[in-house]
Amino acid sequence: MNTTKHFSSCVAEYDPNALPVSAAQEIVRQWALPRGRVEVERVRLFDALDRVLVKDVVSPINVPSHDNSAMDGYAFDGAALLDASGGDESLRLTVAGTALAGQPFEGRPLATQCVRIMTGALIPPGCDTVVPQELVQRAGDAVTFAASGIERGANRRLAGEDLAQGQPALREGRIVRASDLGLLASLGIGEVAVQRRLRVAFFSTGDELRSVGEPLAPGCIYDSNRYTLFAMLRRMNVEPVDLGIVRDDRASLERALRQATQDADVVISSGGVSVGDADFTRDLMNALGDVAFWKIAMRPGRPLAFGRLWSGRRPGEGESALFFGLPGNPVAVMATFYFIVREALLAMSGATPHSLPLISATSSQPINKRAGRTEFQRGIARRDDSGHWHVATTGPQGSGVLSSMSEANCFIVLKHDAGNIDAGDSVDILPFDCLI
Ligand code: AMP
Ligand code: MG
């Protein structure tokens, strides 16, 4: 299989020096298909959080299993309301007994009777309405209340109203959330079939990089991208495979890429993909697979390599993995991960991809922006008393200024076609709490 032609032809209709973000996302979407072979794991509920369901979970029972009360009050046959003609009249019923959650009332009350009932208790036979306790006057074994204050059928939860037996309760491709664990438990399901976690190998490239714990020689910097990548991958609940720092030489890079392709479904590197980088990077990546080098019209994150690598002697042989060669600058790594890589990881995990929720905010300052590229600036957003969002940048927006990401609470997403922003203009923001 030779996909090189395809990768390049995908971008042929665009300016190769400025591939729009939306086009890059679309190409990645086409190539990041779910793994061909579904590998299923059965996990217990406590291990199912953030995992991807392999198939629909069909409800084996009705939830709730029987009609029950939504309030603490008195259950009775609502036909009595119709008899209390005019609605102004009050209704007087005698209390025949009590229904507690887990302890149903035994027997069937008469039309002139009611049953003291607590939330969650079974509605007794012949009853269909619950009057809340705060609406009644109780005197001895009788209650009185205004018939106009209540409608027939009120405060009754119907059997199966939450989940009906035989209906899908959760869909295939669902990423299991907190509520889903509770929902599965409410169905009596203790185990679910989930996809094997996607394995994602990652490494940093650069002769200038040192690991935490090593001394810093002049001109060297600590490798931060591996930590950022590790964290973003962990948050997506994929299995991160850390391959460390790789030196800028052909043999080291080839070893890392082969190993990564063998071990993982996806390979992510950072650094070494800009124009100025050694030609061996491109040669090597093309020798191992089909890799396109893009200049994306985004800031930060312009250079990016994307393609498929093979672990065998030539493309098409051995194991294959999707490859993302991210830029080296620390903020660019984060922006390209969230806006180019993230959705691919979801799709390959078998999850139903969902787009990120952008919110409109008013810019509290002018922002310099060049038309013809999407910019992801770091912002501090706040919501005013009327619920409107306002945003300002964190200051200098260099793609190496990682502290701007820690200081910010959102990305300001400035659209491809937009030019300079004036104070008071509306911009899109993506709150980090939606991401991390
Ligand atoms: P490159 O794309 O390899 O030219 O790197 C661009 C910039 O990002 C350079 O200033 C690098 O020193 C820096 N950089 C590359 N990799 C890392 C890393 N793993 N951690 C921190 N900075 C990096
Ligand atoms: Mg480099």
Automatic annotation (TrEMBL):
EC number of this enzyme: 2.10.1.1
Keyword terms: Magnesium, Metal-binding, Molybdenum, Molybdenum cofactor biosynthesis, Transferase
Any single biological process term in GO: Mo-molybdopterin cofactor biosynthetic process
Gene3D superfamilies the UniProt entry points to: MoaB/Mog-like domain, MoeA, C-terminal, domain IV, Molybdopterin biosynthesis moea protein, domain 2, Molybdopterin biosynthesis moea protein, domain 3
The UniProt record lists the keyword Metal-binding: yes
Gene Ontology MF terms: metal ion binding; molybdopterin molybdotransferase activity
InterPro entries the record matches: MoaB/Mog-like_dom_sf, MoaB/Mog_dom, MoeA-like, MoeA_C_domain_IV, MoeA_C_domain_IV_sf, MoeA_linker/N, MoeA_linker/N_sf
One Gene Ontology cellular component: cytosol
SMART domains per the UniProt record, alphabetical: MoCF_biosynth
This protein's pathway: Cofactor biosynthesis; molybdopterin biosynthesis
Cofactor(s), by name: Mg(2+)
Record flagged with keyword Magnesium: yes
UniProt domain MoaB/Mog: residue ranges: 201-347
UniProt xrefs under SUPFAM superfamilies: MoeA C-terminal domain-like, MoeA N-terminal region -like, Molybdenum cofactor biosynthesis proteins
Catalytic activity: adenylyl-molybdopterin + molybdate = Mo-molybdopterin + AMP + H(+)
Similarity comment: Belongs to the MoeA family.
NCBIfam families on file: Glp_gephyrin (NF045515), molyb_syn (TIGR00177)
Function, as annotated: Catalyzes the insertion of molybdate into adenylated molybdopterin with the concomitant release of AMP.
Annotated protein name in UniProt: Molybdopterin molybdenumtransferase
Lineage: Bacteria, Pseudomonadati, Pseudomonadota, Betaproteobacteria, Burkholderiales
